[in-house]
């Protein structure tokens, strides 16, 4: 089992294919609904703070490469283990890097990020 694969989702369903979403598919972020979140987002003050923090996290983790650097550090640390399956970790890391890139691109189109 790889990073994040096979774990139950919030609704109890397992992860689908483990593949990153493609551009043009429904994206997360502000478009993912949850009744409680939607209720709070109706409040203009809360929505403003939420979107500011959403942009901050996006910039801190994705656009500046922090998430990719953390992944690289994790892979490097894993490879130090005796018997580490380096081929498998590289395959999984490649999948995660693709996911991070796709996520960065798709969230960059989100109106909460680009303020359109």
Give an overview in words.
- With 116 residues, this protein is mainly alpha-helical.
- It is built from five helices and no strands.
- The longest helix has 23 residues, at 86-108.
- It starts with 34 loop residues before the first helix and ends with a helix.
Helix content: 55-70%
Largest sheet: none
Order of helices and strands: HHHHH
CA-atom Rg in angstroms: 17 Å
Q: Helix count?
A: 5
Number of strands: 0
**Secondary-structure class:** mainly alpha
Structural shape: elongated
Mean pLDDT: 80
Task: State the end-to-end distance.
Answer: 40 Å
> How big a fraction of the residues is strand?
under 5%
Low-confidence stretches: 1-18, 23-30
